[in-house]
Amino acid sequence: MSALPALIAAIRNGDRRALARAITLLESTRPDHRAEAETLIEALQPFAGGSVRIGVSGPPGAGKSTFIEAFGQAGLERGRRIAVLAVDPGSKRQGGAILGDKTRMARLTRSPAAFIRPSSAAGSEGGVARRTREAIFLCEAAGFDAVLVETVGAGQSETAVAEMVDMVILVIPPAGGDELQGLKRGIVELSDLVLINKADGELLPLARRAEAEYKSALSLLRPRSAGWHAPVRAVSALEGTGIAEVWEDVERFRAARQASGLWVRHRAEQARSALWSEIDETLIRQFRDAPRVARRLGDVEAEVVQGKKSPRAAARALIALFLGESPD
Ligand SMILES: Nc1nc2c(ncn2[C@@H]2O[C@H](COP(=O)(O)OP(=O)(O)OP(=O)(O)O)[C@@H](O)[C@H]2O)c(=O)[nH]1
Ligand SMILES: [Mg+2]
Question: Is 0.85 surpassed by the pTM of this model?
Answer without folding.
Answer: yes
